[in-house]
Specification:
Protein name: CopG family transcriptional regulator
Number of strands: 2
Number of helices: 2
Strand order of the largest sheet: 1-2
Structural class: alpha+beta
Length: 56
Amino acid sequence: MPKKYAAKKLTVRLSEQEWEIVQKVSESEGIDYNDVIRDAVRRLGRGINSPSGLSP
């Protein structure tokens, strides 16, 4: 069952596996988990705005 994790003023529901990925990226990149989530959302936004759209 997904757990809730507070990301500043936003609550994000992540599975245990998704949360582990966020933590691993945070540790390896040396950045806060909020920044990991924010960067992922930005990449999605760029994909939506690209001519080919999001890849499957």
